[in-house]
Sequence to fold (235 residues):
Amino acid sequence: MGKIKKLRYTNMILSMFVVVFVVSAVAMIGTAAACHYDWGDAPDPYPTLTGNNGANHGDGNYGRGYYLGDKWDHEDDGQPDSEATGDDNSSNDDEDGVIFGPLTAGNLATVQVTVIAPLSKTGYLNAWIDFNADGDWADSGEQIFTDVPLTPEHNELTFDVPQGATTGTTFARFRFCSGSGMCSFYEGNAPDGEVEDYMVNIENTEIPEFSTIALPVAAILGLMFFFNHRKRRRD
Ligand SMILES: [Ca+2]
Ligand SMILES: [Ca+2]
Ligand SMILES: [Ca+2]
Ligand SMILES: [Ca+2]
Fold:
């Protein structure tokens, strides 16, 4: 009987060890799965900080590495900055995935978006520009890309700058992640990927120089005068 009791006691101790080990392992995996987040740096009132449901991307899928550009770092919270360079200037500069061409109201614009995804898998891009410069990306036409599938590395994309876009500086947000619909809103959490915010400048539609208008008009007036003069002489 003494031996059986001792055996039961030993089994009970072993079972407790197994339970404690499993619970600890699950807790450790959970902690490692989502302990760091990349945040944006557009200025207030754009949704950048936790309190504004700022855009953020976890590293819960460590090793899956869906990045804009080839750099990614993490912050404790958003880094709002008047020129959207708060994240550029904190730790390493990981705002390296987007290069804009000229933005002119009423014209097609080009942007080069460089992405990294593991094993050349497809990731999904969403982007916004605050065309009316009212401090949000919620107005019609301000989402310039919606779940655009991209593969590494360089992607040249085009979008329309509305004719009525407010000229001057405004702000853009780009988000890239592993799943369609995962980061298709300009705020809130996505389990992986990256957010990059940029200050951009929208220029006026170019007005032709005076000489390019004046010369053809002068030529037409000259021809009209010549033909009228000849007609009067014939009469
Ligand atoms: Ca970052
Ligand atoms: Ca980056
Ligand atoms: Ca807006
Ligand atoms: Ca930035």
Remarks:
- The first strand starts at residue 37 and ends at 39.
- The longest helix spans residues 2-33.
